[in-house]
Amino acid sequence: MAEVYLRRLTRWQAEQQRQDVADVYVTAYRGAAGAEQHDRGGFLRRFERHGGRDGFDMTVADAPGLVGCAYGYRLDRDGAWWNDSSVEVSPQTEELTASGRVFALAELMVLPGHRRRGVATRLAELLLARHAPDLVVAAVDPDVAAAGFRELLRAWGWKELPGTRATGRTDRDGREVWARGPVR
């Protein structure tokens, strides 16, 4: 198998590669439970919206050709993201949000032929290296979480935030909310 190289993309470069990223998205979720939610058009609309957010950051994996991607953005300081969820937010989390120190991992995907080779871990590490002192959150579709993503997040030291799956409460789109960073 070819060597996988990682690189960080600027917002402009990410926009230029949006069709290739959409191809990876569709292939990465093909055949997964809930795949009907992972349509190309919906992804491209979300990607455009996310790419316009403050603090947008993205990493990709090439081998040759795009084989994986991770991206995210800073959450708005007004706390709107938390208001759209049933997650129990601590005063510390509210303070981090108000100070602009919460980063949302919006997407992490790797083509099936490159999974279980550390590509997802390397993508996430490169993307999140800039956000080490921050709270990093991810809203995860329960079908994706059930397919092994929960175990991956736990292995990376992430924790499910109080008020999600255990109590049947999720974000407004029915996703579990996970976090890494200074949360008590």
Keywords:
single chain; 184 residues; alpha+beta; Aminopeptidase; 7 helices; globular
Question: What is the strand and helix layout of this fold?
Answer:
Elements: E1 5-9, H1 11-16, H2 18-29, H3 40-51, E2 57-62, E3 66-74, H4 80-83, H5 91-98, E4 102-110, H6 119-128, E5 135-140, H7 142-155, E6 159-160, E7 176-180
Helix pairs in contact: 2-3
Describe the structure.
The protein is an alpha+beta fold and 184 residues long. It has one domain: Aminopeptidase (3-Layer(aba) Sandwich), CATH 3.40.630.30. The chain contains 7 helices and 7 strands; from the N terminus they run E-H-H-H-E-E-H-H-E-H-E-H-E-E. It has a 7-stranded mixed sheet with strand order 1-2-3-4-5-7-6. Helix 2 crosses helix 3 (40-51). The longest helix is centred in the C-terminal third of the chain and has 14 residues, at 142-155. The protein is globular, with a radius of gyration of 16 Å. The chain starts with a strand and ends with a strand. Mean pLDDT is 82; it is low at 164-170.
Tell me the number of strands: 7
CATH topology value = Aminopeptidase
Strand content: 15-25%
Total of DSSP H or I helical runs spanning 4+ residues: 7
CATH class value:
Alpha Beta
**Judging from the principal axes of the Cα atoms, what is the shape?**
globular
Distance, first to last CA: 42 Å
Helix content: 25-40%
Radius of gyration: 16 Å
Largest sheet: 7 strands, mixed
Quickly give the structural class: alpha+beta
- Low-confidence stretches at least 5 residues in length (pLDDT < 50)? 164-170
CATH architecture: 3-Layer(aba) Sandwich
Order of helices and strands: EHHHEEHHEHEHEE
Number of domains: 1
List the strand order in the largest sheet: 1-2-3-4-5-7-6
Tell me the CATH superfamily: Gcn5-related N-acetyltransferase (GNAT)
